[in-house]
Amino acid sequence: MTNYGMVIDQERCIGCHSCAVACKDENNVSMGQAWNRILTTGGENIDTPAGEYPVDGGDGTLSMQYQPTACQHCENAPCVKVCPVNATYTREDGIVEIDYDKCMGCRYCMAACPYNARVFNYDKPETTAPKGTGNVEQRERGVVEKCTFCSHRLDEGLDPACTIACPSSARIFGDLDDPDSAVSRYVKQYETTQLLEDLETDPNTYYIRGEMSPGRNHLGNEMESELDEPPKRRNAEPGVPATDGGEEQ
Amino acid sequence: MSKRDGVTRRSVLLSAGAAAGVLGIGGSNVLQSLSDDSEINDVERFLQENTVVHGYCSPNCRGHCPLDIHVRDGQIRKVEPAIPDREEFRRACTLGQTHLHRTYNPNRLKYPMKRSDWSPENPNPQGRGPDAEFERIEWSEALDYVAGEMDRIREEYSPESVYFELGSGGSGINGTVYSRLANLFGGTMMSWSIDINVGLGFRRITGAGYFNTPTNMRTDIKNADTILIWGGNVFRSRLNPDARFLLDAIEGGTKIVGIDPVYNQTTAKSDLWLPVKPGKDIHLVMGMIHTVLEEDLEDTEFLRERTLAPALVRTDTGALLKTGDVFPDGDDETPVAYDADAGQAVALEPETYGEYALRGTFEFGGHEVRTALTELEETASDYAPEDIEETIGVDADNVRQAVRWLATRGPGGVMTGLGVDRYVYGHVFGQAYAILLALTGDYGRSGCVTGGRFAGSGYRSDYGAVEGSPGTRRMQQKGILSALQGDADPPLKMMYTQSSNFVANQLPDRQQWIDSLSNLDLVAVADIHHTPTVQHADIVLPASHWTEREDITGAGEHPHAMYREPVHDPLWESKSDHWMIAELADRLGYGEHFERDRTTLLRKILEGEDRFTFEEIREKGTIHLETDEIIFTDEFNTPSGRLEIYDEDAPSEKGVSLELPVPLEDRTADDHELADEYPLLFMQGHSKWRIHSQWAENPMMREINPEPRIDINPQDAKERGIEDGEYVRVYNDRGEMIVKAKYNDAYRPGHVNTDQGWWGEHYIAGHHNNLTHTDVSETIENFAFYDTRVEIEPAPEDLDTSKYDDPTETDWIDQLQHGGDTA
Ligand code: SF4
Ligand code: SF4
Ligand code: SF4
Questions:
Q1: Do the Cβ atoms of A215 and B243 come within 8 Å?
Q2: Which ipTM did the prediction report?
Q3: Which pTM was predicted?
Q4: Strand-pair category, B255-259 with B272-274
């Protein structure tokens, strides 16, 4: 079985929003809407830290991180449970998707989703380019939409658009059921958390915080499983701790 | 029901173009503005064209990122970072991935235009500016006007009275062709007065550096053991498109010391942050130099072999002792050292090791002399970290810690941003840190980091000025201002600007520049978008977007040459700059020197290139060019061939001679005469939402970053009765701006910031460059944007802020992310 998931290394993320912008264009998302948002973990405002400036000259305690947030593709998805017409459903490969033909716009799922991952088309979507953007048909007004893990790209053996766009290689995508995949190894090896774990939604999106990972192999657009020779990382063996690197990586 | 019911998407989209509407340029709905002229320029005519074409991005971030432009039905649908010839250099930042939104932007210039009240007979300069109205004219008319005025002014005044202003808004061949015309014509061109401060200071020591300071290729960053990232939020600017190079180093154990007055995404990833006070960077380097020498951490072998540390300095004149002072057959150029083994004075040749004394006082040829290192040690002795703690605002132990890492962990160095450049005496910082790295031996090896401009390459070409051209009169930008004001012989009487939004937006003390235009009979501006400078034009020349031009460029900071293929013909009536220049050249009688066919021209430009052919680059998009990954491996390009840690030809500033670095300050000085009235230091950082003033019109960016703000420490704000998110008036003795306050603990009390690049019409009132000034140092005419003082107060009550806070206009902004808006 395949169970797609994503690891986002917050130690690598620089808060650039490339993934958010690429997501919008790839998925023909209307201006004014966003499937993928880069939140600042820190102060009240975007790009501000928590804490106070160290006027004593020390290193201080200010802290700031970025938390890219889109649909978490929960295994135990509240949105799926509340949809009265089964428009929102979990695919066999773990992706939570919406059948736009069935969606009647009741927005129960939006209320149910604890991650604020869904948006509703109150009006006809509009984009800067006259014929729309990206590789997905525009959704009609009156339906709910959200991140699909770029399932249309996965069909072509390509990683999601956000994953390709990230200049920090902070996004790693793959099959959580394959113990040798990068996502599986990273979940095992690094300190990862799922958002709002206590709600028991069991997201397929994991965040690395603590020790930085080596990130995604960025030399191609293919999913790791599509590569003839999957990239050899310094921690090629599951469970083997990262070394100090070197040429061979 | 949601509160959004009743807000139609149309009004939301209209609001996305609200700023454009305010400017009076119309076309706030892109869909309409595209279809209005469907008969000739709608992208419909490219239907069925499905392809991926080679592109690259080329603003003045110097990134030159290779892009894959995905086209369906003849229209750009998506832009992705392309995988170049040398794959590991795949790169692109957020901006480069949004060219779709720049290409199909309502703010694009669509037709040649003339300011309605301008004519050659009656130029009406006072009609320029925000209220200027334009009328559409034919290309032939527009070009006749420009060429006609060039001719007239050349006759009436001088060819040098025509100012050819080439900005940094688009790399490719356009600059080459433009300069060719300027040289034939004999006009005036500018030399930069921006970002050359630290580079030129560094150059005095190392023989290299101009725009910023050179360093090894990015691929080598991972081999550094310690990097001091100084005066630059590199994850927001120069290492944004390929952050992985530095991240991989961090992951592999490189120690990072962030040296910045501001806490940001780079200092957040540092092992140690030194929160230096604005303008105290030179003091801090001196403290580090002192620490190295006091703790005996210097690399003595390197100092003896590759620097002037052992050179003997005459105590009477301050000049270096030369072989001619000591030996009968000596000269007056070669410095002298004391060879302790041989017990005698010897000539100090480049790249030569000897048991030279590094410290001490001696006597030769009747002169008392001391080693340069001893001189340095004495100068630095006033700056023990403990003694300057108060001044620089950095804990002394942390300064020493940073130095120990740098000096003892292995190769490393200083990665510079452009922050320190923007203080009046930034060049002394370049001198000082070049010396620090000489002491730690961080030149010429893998893992050394000597600056912020990473090694890369370009194509070879013999195509440039036409032989026998009269050439141009060159003036630095500061001098251009005087010439625009009429204070030059001959004065400037017209300007023809390409790829530049300088005069009305990007230069310090902006009002002076705008006022100076009143002396010009014609301002002709060629640009892609309707910038503030376009709004000050008499003749507007619409340029095609990068995605619509066939072009080539060198990568500069990565080892490639790149090719770009047009996605479709230029939209509306826009044309390539090359076409405009060739048309002008025809009218001016230089037509024979300008190739009309673009592809033929590109081939010609590449004739001098023997490493690849035009066919190859056209097919592959990028060509990897073998380039040295490690720099400074050979004799230094200095008079002595060594790192001149003692610079005997030093300039003076404020009466202080700078053989060795001395901390100097202008407005940042605590006792500056303006400090009481304007207690806040005002910087204007480079943001991740724009490259200079480009992308300011991009709706994709404006959704996330809708309007200018001023970052202010909550303590400073509260003292002034200012709430978070409230409009404030920022002012000084030159001007003002009205922006929203943004509480931000990343800023030291007393230090505020508004990101640069915003256009005049994006402000409720004023402009950040109404606050900056044109004072420069005696040595280097480099504008010191950050060396600025301001005061802040709540904005006046009666302000019209509907541009941003009319609920129907900003609904779309509310829907988007806000910091701290966690799930
Ligand atoms: S994040 Fe929200 S939308 Fe996505 S699966 Fe979970 S509950 Fe559903
Ligand atoms: S593209 Fe990568 S680095 Fe940038 S915000 Fe997204 S996850 Fe973070
Ligand atoms: S703006 Fe971004 S994508 Fe464009 S060249 Fe610069 S770094 Fe690269």
A1: no
A2: 0.92
A3: 0.93
A4: parallel
